[in-house]
Amino acid sequence: xxxxxxxxxxxxxxxxxxxxxxxxxxxxxxxxxxxxxxxxxxxxxxxxxxxxxxxxxxxxxxxxxxxxxxxxxxxxxxxxxxxxxxxxxxxxxxxxxxxxxxxxxxxxxxxxxxxxxxxxxxxxxxxxxxxxxxxxxxxxxxxxxxxxxxxxxxxxxxxxxxxxxxxxxxxxxxxxxxxxxxxxxxxxxxx
Length: 191
Hints:
Structural class: mainly alpha
CATH class of the domain at 3-135: Alpha Beta
Distance between the termini: 42 Å
CATH topology of the domain at 3-135: TIM Barrel
Largest sheet: 3 strands, antiparallel
Order of helices and strands: HEHHHEHHHEEEH
Number of strands: 5
Number of helices: 8
Radius of gyration: 18 Å
Shape: globular
CATH superfamily of the domain at 3-135: Metal-dependent hydrolases
């Protein structure tokens, strides 16, 4: 895409309040797909073997990662609406785990940890028109929370230090989460 077209598309995106979900992890994984081996990705133990086989046969050419990072930073700086997310139908994008990688890529794009966290809390609630019920921690709002051991505002990778999750009024401790992951791994262990 030429610089003139890119600039015009960015301006129209901001002007029309279009929501953007960059899914940088997908671009990264497509770039690295030929170099990746299943044995190098620990989280693949939580993915059914048939899905892994499908991913290996589906590589395609898409936007370069570095360009996507630059585009994300430009869109953010110009005031575009950004939400974080991943596309779990693409190679080695593993639900739950991939979002942490997406956060890192967003930070590498030039967003601060605080800005990255906004794309996964306040902004999705705003996009869905749920600001009165979700997106921030306030009395009367839904209380789905992740309790971390380290501050993600210091390092976005601290989102991986999960102590527990509160969802729909149910507390899931770190131990319970690991038990659930062990069950998934056991079910998919037939490799």
